[in-house]
């Protein structure tokens, strides 16, 4: 219990500046990732979408102990979290499958649902003990750098509306009634707590739910969508560059730019061109004639 308490104590240390730098390419980064970040309403028609994901540590420079809470915007959920097991099935000294990322560890926990409060996906990890109470080594031995530190699943509910949903590492700092600072995120090396934005960074993952062909995201595929897709294509060709989010938003008349861009690529080939606008128009005309439109017959 002393080892566990020592890790949790880091959450009560003095809060550091939480600004994330514009360019964190060289910083150690705790990065959320997913096998897929775009989900169409067609995919959700048959039920919830389960997407595999994980948390990676890029540019690792040393962690002695860590506490974090993973959060997601409703209705998206992060589920079935665990420390990634060794892909080769290598065993530790206790005969259990070792972690994939670090060579050694002292103690670690992944709490899916707290029995104390409403927090979910609480991660606690401590490096190798150095024989002194409450002290841990920054574990610099990486076993499989290509493996995620943590593995979990994202659940996109079947009734999720068109839009963007962010899953992230919480950097919330709260003050208790007794004046103690409690941090959702605390990362330390052997000497001090690391400063977010200066010594390490965090990177979220954003899921976009969209409806194929519904460029203005108003809930239906219409003539306006075909016109918007064509206008964006023409504008990009004239400008000879990808439109900014602001420019795109002004054309398609929605703030849901990510969903609009995905919807406009009706063919699903990764390009937005004339055939997408033509396909959207064909879909609309087919439905207007009282027939069931089918994208597979259009592209």
What does this structure look like?
- The chain has helices at residues 2-9, 41-44, 223-239, 245-252, 257-264, 274-288, 295-298, and strands spanning 28-34, 38-40, 49-58, 65-72, 77-83, 107-113, 120-126, 150-156, 163-169, 173-175, 181-183, 186-188, 200-203, 205-210.
- The protein is an alpha+beta fold.
- It has 2 domains: 2-208, Sandwich (Immunoglobulin-like), CATH 2.60.40.680; 211-298, no CATH class.
- Strands 2, 4, 6, 7, 9, 12 and 14 form a 7-stranded mixed beta sheet that branches.
- Strand 10 and strand 11 (181-183) form a beta hairpin.
- Helix 3 (223-239) packs antiparallel against helix 6.
- Mean pLDDT is 89; it is low at 1-22.
Largest sheet: 7 strands, mixed
Please give the count of helices.
7
C-alpha termini separation: 61 Å
Number of strands: 14
Rg over CA atoms, rounded to whole Å, is 23 Å
Give the total of domains. Answer: 2
How much of the sequence lies in strands comes to 25-35%
What fold name goes in the CATH topology slot of the largest domain?
A: Immunoglobulin-like
What global shape is seen?
elongated
Class based on secondary structure composition and strand pairing: alpha+beta
| Poorly predicted segments | 1-22
Could you name the CATH class of the largest domain? Mainly Beta
CATH architecture of the largest domain: Sandwich
Task: Please write the string of helix (H) and strand (E) elements.
Answer: HEEHEEEEEEEEEEEEHHHHH
Helix content: 10-25%
Q: Kindly state the mean pLDDT as a whole number?
A: 89
